[in-house]
Amino acid sequence: SETEKNTLRSPICAILGHVDTGKTKILDRIRKSKVQEGEAGGITQQIGASFFPVEELRRKTKSIPAAQRLQLSVPGLLVIDTPGHESFANLRSRGSSLCDIAILVVDIMHGLQQQTLESLHLLRVRNSPFIVALNKIDRMYGWEPHQDAPLRDTMKKQEKHVRDEYDARVQKTITEFAEQGINAIEYHKNKDFRKYVSLVGTSAVTGEGIPDLLMLLVQLAQRFMTERLTTRDRLECSVLEVKMIEGLGTTIDVILVNGVLHEGDEIVVCGLNGPIVTNIRALLTPKPMHEIRVKTDYIHHKVIYASQGVKIAAPDLVDAIAGSSLYVVGDEIDREAAIDLAKKEVSDLNRYIDKSGYGVFVQASTLGSLEALLSYLEQVEIPVSGIGVGPVHRKNVMAASTMLEHKKEYAVILAFDVRVGQDAARFAEECGVRIFTADIIYHLFDMFKKYVEDIEA
Ligand code: GDP
Ligand code: MG
């Protein structure tokens, strides 16, 4: 396996940014050229991730002189395929990020947007190194595309007014980052990766700047992550998504960052009603591209080594929570210890609950998004008195209603990306608890702020 051949494991890379900036398209572009050329031994598609072997990274970056001097001692790059800050937030283990590096995608025509700021908040909280793709450069007026060209090559061939527009947009973005307290700089001018975040113009449509982007990722991984990337024995595995699959029942898509999983292993993950203890019935990865006929056509494995994205089928996963760590019962830890660790993952978030006993109630779809929301509320100094994962139920409304007597403005549920049960909604209406739902953290904040202002007016 990769882990046995190399002392360094593959860095895990997530992609974040505002909706429609081109996150999915960039990943498609990185993969597509390869698939079209039909070469063997290239990128392997996994569950929730794609693996880019180092030879492939070399091939894709060979058009850049600087990339040829790069030492590449990582086996490859594992890029998380389910873009959005949800998946970044859920790649966590015991409160720290399992993501080694990230790409923050910004639409060069729009600059920093609401979810960009949200992503920045997450990257800061998790202390993750990242680079910025200023995407959609091909949309600038008069742009002449040069398929898959390195940024500087295509830039040289553009007319002066196009280059001027690019420079102006880059400057504007740098100013916007500065307003967020971040020093950003064009990557080829970056002499200090610790102080400055690198910006690179890209187009997911023409592939321009993509070689640069890949080079920067590897560079970042090599320079700063050697310690992090040294393989450890401890199992590190995170539940990225919980999915119902016909014929398999409820499955979990996990990213195995360190260690080994076996068919039949007894595992523990966090559930809506406490830790779930179950046994792995099947370890599944997708069939290679050309073999895929039916969606549910998976390869079964007896054993899986890190780093990999894999689907796990097992009984009793219905209530599993994304963002939970996965624990294997065995030599490292016994069942009781694993259950305790799973409980602790949820209870650790109680540190965000205000000591005064007063505050809003917070409900989110996954452990990762709950943590992101709580850390944001802490930053903007909104106290929290109760937290939960999953749909809003009547009992949550009941809890929030206790604030009505003391602090009416806190008789509120901020519900992030979760359903509100009919019964809960009706009951909230009756007793005067307000439920705000949104899938952008800032929107919840804005709604709440306005509500408080209206009460005070
Ligand atoms: P996501 O929401 O960030 O994943 O964005 P998508 O990848 O779904 O892209 C949103 C839209 O922008 C789609 O219509 C894409 O075709 C388009 N798009 C993405 N990247 C580029 C780009 O580099 N250039 C242009 N012109 N369009 C792009
Ligand atoms: Mg997308």
Spatial strand arrangement across the major sheet: 2-3-4-1-7-8-10-9
Biggest β-sheet, characterized? 8 strands, mixed
**Approximate shape:** globular
Ligands bound, unique: guanosine-5'-diphosphate, magnesium ion
Question: What is the C-alpha radius of gyration, as a whole number of Å?
Answer: 23 Å
pLDDT averaged over residues: 89
Structural class: alpha/beta
Distance between the ends? 65 Å
Uncertain ranges: 1-6, 33-41, 290-294
Helices, by number, come to 15
Tally the beta strands: 24
Tell me the fraction of residues in β-strands, as a range: 25-35%
Percent helix, as a range, is: 25-40%
Protein name: Eukaryotic translation initiation factor 5B
Family: Belongs to the TRAFAC class translation factor GTPase superfamily. Classic translation factor GTPase family. IF-2 subfamily.
Subcellular location: Cytoplasm
Organism: Stygiella incarcerata
Provide keyphrases for this structure:
single chain, 457 residues, alpha/beta, eight-stranded mixed beta sheet, five-stranded antiparallel beta sheet, 15 helices, globular, binds magnesium ion, Eukaryotic translation initiation factor 5B
Describe the protein.
The chain is α/β, with parallel strands linked by helices. It is 34% helix and 25% strand. The chain has 15 helices and 24 strands. Strands 2-3-4-1-7-8-10-9 form an 8-stranded mixed β-sheet, sandwiched between helices. The protein has a 5-stranded antiparallel β-sheet with strand order 11-12-19-16-17, with no helix packed on it. A 4-stranded parallel β-sheet has the order 22-21-23-24, with helices on both faces. The longest helix is centred in the middle third of the chain and has 20 residues, at 160-179. The N and C termini lie far apart (65 Å). The model is unreliable at 1-6, 33-41 and 290-294 (pLDDT under 50). It binds guanosine-5'-diphosphate and magnesium ion (MG). Residues 17, 19-25, 83, 135-136, 138-139, 203-205 line the site of guanosine-5'-diphosphate (GDP).
